[in-house]
Write a structure and sequence with these properties.
Elements: H1 2-11, H2 15-28, H3 33-47, H4 70-84, H5 89-100, H6 106-119, H7 124-136, H8 140-153, H9 158-171, H10 174-185, H11 194-215, H12 217-237, H13 242-250, H14 254-257, H15 263-266
Helix pairs in contact: 1-2, 1-3, 2-3, 3-4, 3-5, 4-5, 5-6, 5-7, 6-7, 7-8, 7-9, 8-9, 9-10, 10-11, 11-12, 11-13
Length: about 290
Amino acid sequence: AYQRLASAYIAAARYRDAVDLLAVASDKFPDNADLLARRARALCEWALQGETPDASMNPRPKAATSQKDARKEALRAAELAGKKSPDLVIVNLALGYAYTLDERDRPKAVSAFVRASTIAPDDPEGYFGVGYTYRLMKQYQQAIPQLKKALELRPDYYEAHRELAYCYHSEGDTDHAIGEYNTATGYQGETNNSGEMAGNHLALSALYTEKGQQVGGSDGEAIKQAGKGHESDAREYDPTLKAALKILTASGVSYRMTAYLPSDVRGLINDRTVSVPGGFKIPFPKKRP
């Protein structure tokens, strides 16, 4: 019951409520590594929200974890779960995500995700975790095959398509990036982050503009028109495009887009409200029931 309700809170962007619920559950069942791992995952989600307003509404228990301490507490909970049940897949996944929060710990994250995929080779999330971490480390050639493996096991894996799009975009592989972003935009229900979906469309706008300039002529103009359509789609999700650019900056692709964005949008990339100094604000995958 705790797990289901916490998952519902996370799906509704009520990260603090999920953290508090799982803290109560972990206190009630201190030897339950599954609950500890889920709490670590919820803390990771909450930590990555930064200053984004939280939709949580439940009253907080005494001595509840603060958002600024979520990263530290996520690592503590994950490592405690690892000591109790080191061979559980969910524990190794929790360790992997907790280790991604600090750039210095990302090699440990790769090891934890590899262990998860070794324990459960038919579970795509371990391979996703390896690919996600390599993408954070800007090791795109290592990331791509892991993300492809995740998609072999779950073709409708939105987050893997999103991460693969970021990899191809960062590598300058325009056609493959377009393909993955287009696939990702087909899964609107898989993310509760409107800025993220706007970012997918804005990236497509820039990529189509770039491709249109390369093709030239009437065909090129038609391609650029498709780009304008995606810019309009992006503004439907995020009228100012600030949230979209924040995510694309965090994902390391905004610098490749600068020359292919309208001037009013281009200026936002250097806007202090768009910059992301602390790292990557990328939501984690939803768990399948």
